[in-house]
Request: fold
Amino acid sequence: RDTDQSIAEAVRMNNAIYDYTKQIDEIGEAVKQASHEVSPGGAQKLTAQTLGVMLHVMNESLRAQATGLKLQAQAMAVQNKKEKDSTREYLSNSD
Reply:
């Protein structure tokens, strides 16, 4: 059940990340356009806003990496359980 839940969570996060990247692309294009039209003070503000967006992007990347690690750990746990069960069965049959 936990593995199924994690997989569903990963798929949801994957979809959300792809949606988010579309938004980031739009923001990037808007920043490029605005950079041609702003004053020096406006450019500083635009730079600060862009850095804020970059922090959000980095944070989303960390979340995605954490979800990937969680899925890997759960896959290893499932595999470990299968191997232990197989060993127990082998030992039981040997006795």
About this structure: The longest helix spans residues 40-94. The CA atoms of residues 83 and 89 lie 10 Å apart. The chain has a mean pLDDT of 86. The helical segments are 2-35, 40-94.
